[in-house]
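tokens incoming
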């Protein structure tokens, strides 16, 4: 597995699904800053309300999938999910089918967010329960104070870089500020 973070400002993402799992994935994507198109031929009432204007009331065709960089598929009939995964893969689109690792070009990690600090735990689809347990441990290890500390460090970094400060001094400043916040 290659762990990466995708910036939703530079990648186009979509969600295909009908029910509670798709709604959960939509919430997760939005928490990450994405506003995906939502494709569904039978959306639950909750999913339709949450998707709003982004809802496209049908399953995507291969040409539709080719317009995206990454597509999450959840809560649809296994045969439809498999066909969409194959079509997306033929179009060189990154595909994730919830709970079907054999059809996934990528896996969705369990995530803890502390402002702009994003911590992820993944098992490559081997055990979402283990990834969730790791996420819970990360939540305890990285309390909410990391958000304010990171914002302070980011501002300081910008100011120091403008003055021509090098990488070692930037790292030292960050560590000092984390220590001042009692985080290390």
């Amino acid at each position: 597995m290659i762990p990466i973070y995708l910036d939703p400002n530079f990648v186009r993402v979509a969600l295909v699904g009908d029910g509670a799992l798709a709604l959960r994935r939509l919430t997760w994507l939005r928490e990450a800053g994405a506003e995906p198109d939502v494709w569904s031929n039978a959306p639950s009432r909750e999913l339709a309300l949450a998707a709003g204007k982004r809802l496209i009331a049908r399953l995507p065709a291969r040409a539709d999938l080719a317009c995206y960089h990454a597509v999450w598929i959840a809560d649809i009939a296994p045969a439809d999910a498999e066909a969409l995964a194959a079509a997306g893969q033929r179009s060189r689109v990154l595909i994730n089918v919830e709970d079907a690792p054999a059809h996934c070009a990528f896996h969705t990690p369990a995530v803890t967010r502390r402002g702009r600090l994003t911590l992820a735990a993944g098992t490559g689809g081997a055990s979402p329960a283990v990834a969730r347990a790791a996420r819970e441990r990360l939540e305890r290890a990285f309390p909410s104070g990391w958000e304010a500390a990171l914002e302070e460090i980011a501002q300081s970094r910008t100011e120091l870089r403008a003055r021509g400060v090098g990488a070692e001094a930037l790292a030292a400043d960050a560590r000092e500020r984390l220590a001042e916040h009692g985080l290390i």
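note: The first helix runs from residue 20 to 31.
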